[in-house]
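Here is a protein:
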Amino acid sequence: MTILRLTNKVLKEFGRKKPALAGVPGNVSSMDEWYVNLFRLNRRKCLLFANAGTLFSFVAVGVARKDIQNLPELFRKELSKALFYEEFSAGEIQRVMKQVDTITIAKACNRSVLGSMNQMLFEYEHTVYRHQYFEDRELIEANRDLNRSLRSAIGEGRNDYGVPIEEFKKKLILL
């Protein structure tokens, strides 16, 4: 089971069609939790998805409200594309996609992950504007940069640091 943990900004986009937020058992693996935040880039709505256990992330650019209201489908599609662009093998992509077959929606609760996501958004926007990345191919490069930046709050200890793409690959082997 995969849990999409939504920020208030994302929940607000559902309007009257708010999803039923599920109560989540306490024994869920951080690899099964994905946080979702909404931001704007050049007046286009974007969603940042970040894995709670590794901070592996990807950005969905130019999403509409109807896309957000069908969040599980959007998540699966964008995750598959992100894994492809990160050069995962077909077998690895298939294994990850099996893990996200069943999706539950819940409210964001981990301040450490949310703080890391705020830093990622700052870096992503800075990279896009600094290098004038506005084409889809260039936005993919900006996303790849996010996954190769050293991050804190990865791992079991408080002072652990890691590179999201490397941490995600390590944990993928354990699945």
About this structure: The radius of gyration is 15 Å. Strands lie at 2-6, 33-41, 44-51, 57-61, 103-107, 151-152, 161-162. The chain has seven helices and seven strands. The mean pLDDT is 90.
